[in-house]
Amino acid sequence: MDRTKARILLISVFMARGTSFLFSKTLMQSLNPLSILAVRFLLAFLILAVLFREKVALCSPRSLRGGIILGVLYTICMFFEMYGLRLVDTGVSSLIENMAIVLVPLITAVIERTLPRKKTMLCALLAVVGVGFLSLTQGSRAGGGLGILLSVLAAVTFAFCIMATEKVSRDADPVAIGIIQLGTMGVLSLLGALLTEPFTVPRTGLEWTMMALLILLCSCFGFAFQPLGQKYLPAEEAAVLTVVNPLTASIMGILIAGEKMSVFKLTGYVLILSALLLYNLHTEPAA
């Protein structure tokens, strides 16, 4: 896979995962957050384990270890995401979480003792300012401040998830890693649900439809194939491409959930889209 195809795959992955915010927020009206995560990821794991049973059976220790590491990190990220999502709009939650686009190059620069590329920092700055405009719309909501804080914590964890994905995908089977990751997330979420809240499952046809979309679109495709795309791209570039995720969540929130549009929101959307377009305009020669 060349870098152009890897970019297209990651953009598709992040769009798919962007739809999860609306489905999850709707399901949380009747189901507990950790129960949703447990059902979603365990069923996704079972589906992929059957479809790719040879990869699972021949999974190397490196792939197994990588999947478990990512599963733990993403479970923490999803915990913050879900509880923050209950308190703020879907688009705002997704946008704040994707502060990872600036955290990744900053963390990388600290670790490697180098400066991030100027273009990366400019795009990250545009996206962060866009996040700021969207955050201003949540300040007056009950629990809005806590929701923003939880979303920021999700962003910090997500940054480490992106960086860890790049590391563990090297010299390992990315599909096997993604499947093991989903299984780990499902088991940890189930344990958390059993220990902290009444375990609940979808009851109505509509709830199962939304759960099916979470499982097939957002998890089987969205989570499992991110390691495949990231195997061919550096973490900083993958981080910037994540702006597709909040843009998708924001548009769905407005068109489907009826979340209100304002000047601040429109400004945030324009800034984030500009960051994505600028970064992908003649970034680097093809490898």
Description:
- With 287 residues, the protein is an all-alpha fold.
- It has one domain.
- The chain is 76% helix and 0% strand.
- The protein is built from 15 helices and no strands.
- The protein starts with a helix and ends in an 8-residue tail after the last helix.
- The C terminus is likely disordered.
H/I helix tally: 15
What fraction of the residues are assigned to beta strands by DSSP?
A: under 5%
Number of domains: 1
SSE ordering = HHHHHHHHHHHHHHH
Structure summary, number of beta strands: 0
Instruction: Kindly state the percentage of residues in helix.
Output: over 70%
Helices and strands, with pairings:
Layout: H1 3-18, H2 20-27, H3 33-51, H4 53-57, H5 61-85, H6 90-97, H7 100-112, H8 118-135, H9 144-169, H10 174-196, H11 205-221, H12 226-230, H13 235-241, H14 244-255, H15 263-279
Helix pairs in contact: 1-11, 1-14, 2-11, 3-10, 3-11, 5-9, 5-10, 6-8, 6-9, 6-14, 7-9, 7-13, 8-15, 9-13
